[in-house]
Each structure stands twice: as C-alpha cells, then as structure tokens.
Amino acid sequence: MIRAEPMRHKFVDAFPERLERGVLYVALDFATMSHLCACGCGTEVVTPLSPLDWRLTFDGVTITINPSIGNWSLPCRSHYVIKQGVIHWAGDWSDEQIAEGRRRDLLAKRQEQAPSSSPNPIPAPATRRGILRRLRNWLKKFSAYSIAG
Ligand SMILES: [Zn+2]
Fold this sequence. Notes:
There is one protein chain. The chain is an alpha+beta fold. The chain folds into two domains: 4-89, no CATH class; 108-148. Helix content is 28%, strand content 28%. The longest helix is centred in the C-terminal third of the chain and has 24 residues, at 125-148. The structure holds zinc ion. The site of zinc ion has 8 residues, from loops.
C-alpha cells in the first residue's frame, strides 16, 4: 500500500478560482495556504500561517508544514503531514481525541483572555488566584476601614 504522494507548492499573490490537486498554494501576503484535501474528496482546505496555527518551512526545493493537517470537520476526516513535498498519511483520530484537542484549544484561548469578567467556570489557576487575592485584600482593607470608622 502506497501511503505517500507528492505535494507540490506554488507561491501565489492570490488563490486561483480552481485549485489543482496535489498543489499547495501559499499566499505569503495573506499568511495563508490553500489546497484540495489530499484524499481526493475535492474540498478546499485553508490553513492560516501563524505561530499558533501552521508553520511553513521552505528549504529552497520543497515545503514542510507543521503540525499535521487534520480535516476533522470534513466527512473524509483525512489526516496527513506534508513533509518535504510529500504527503504522509497519519492515522484517524477518535472522537475522544478530537474532543480533547478542542477542549485544550478552548482552555488555552480562555486563559489568554482577560479574567476581569468573572464568574468564569473554566479554571484558569494563575489569573483566578490573582483575582481572589486582590478581592481578599480589598475586603480586608474595606472591613478594617469600616471597623475603624
Ligand atoms: Zn478529503
């Protein structure tokens, strides 16, 4: 069973109307990549380039994309890695693995947000403790003041 296919790349200013299969289009000006799902289902897969999304390595000849591309929202649920211009198929993830990955993503994003709008049911240890401490100090000050007054 052959599980590796070539993936060419094209650096473009804008994505063409019709994408060619087996070509990864890279629009550096928009920090975005686009390609047709490697399984052949014909779905256009857009992957943004950023430190939190995908990273592109161009060695002068071939491209490598990190991390893997998991099309969980597509019916095909294809999962592959593009390494030095070659598609390497990766295993399918179970629903639990996807849910766990999404939960972790969500947690990371919520923890990044300012915690000023409590109540926040998701624990964000560092920031929540900070708020509690501040609240406790404020209460201490307040009660001391009212006792003194
Ligand atoms: Zn597909």
